[in-house]
Structure to design on (171 residues):
């Protein structure tokens, strides 16, 4: 708790020292690595954050929420070096966290930066849908349809979301 309090009070050095003590005492606890990674990422230390998220995932490989945070860190790099990995981590996380708005927002960013505009617009639409903003979701659906191959898997996903929104409006 003291490590978190120091971190929240913008005392990264003390927070980091305290979390390091916890990691030393409990090296197999993935959540201490996750906390350290979050502290580091939010203070701009992306390389160190990435190492700690990877250590957490090494200990608990299928934790969807850690995978989402790892992907956010990978997306935050200025280069596209980790984009494919970020997309894969988000897709893996979506198996358990498919209704996670942050996941879909991050997918939209990653796909967009990777030049996959149809998937990016669909992900933006789904993110807006999960936030309850159906008007924005329909706007992104319209844009996604303009750049997605008709009758493809992605096309049917877009239409499915559009139909869900329209059905919801009828009720």
């Amino acid at each position: 708790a003291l490590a978190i309090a120091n971190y929240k009070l913008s005392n990264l050095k003390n927070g980091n020292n305290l979390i390091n003590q916890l990691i030393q005492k409990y090296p197999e606890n993935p959540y201490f690595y996750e906390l350290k990674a979050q502290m580091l990422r939010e203070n701009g230390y992306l390389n160190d954050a990435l190492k700690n998220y990877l250590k957490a995932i090494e200990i608990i490989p299928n934790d969807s929420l850690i995978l989402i945070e790892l992907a956010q860190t990978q997306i935050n790099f200025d280069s596209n070096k980790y984009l494919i990995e970020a997309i894969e981590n988000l897709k893996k996380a979506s198996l358990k966290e498919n209704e996670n708005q942050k996941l879909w927002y991050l997918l939209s960013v990653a796909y967009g930066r990777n030049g996959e505009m149809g998937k990016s617009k669909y992900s933006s639409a789904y993110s807006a849908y999960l936030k309850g903003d159906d008007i924005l979701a329909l706007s992104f659906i319209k844009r996604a349809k303009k750049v997605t191959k008709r009758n493809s898997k992605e096309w049917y996903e877009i239409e499915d979301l559009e139909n869900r929104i329209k059905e919801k409006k009828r009720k």
Residues 153-170 form the longest helix (18 residues). The CA atoms of residues 3 and 15 lie 4 Å apart.
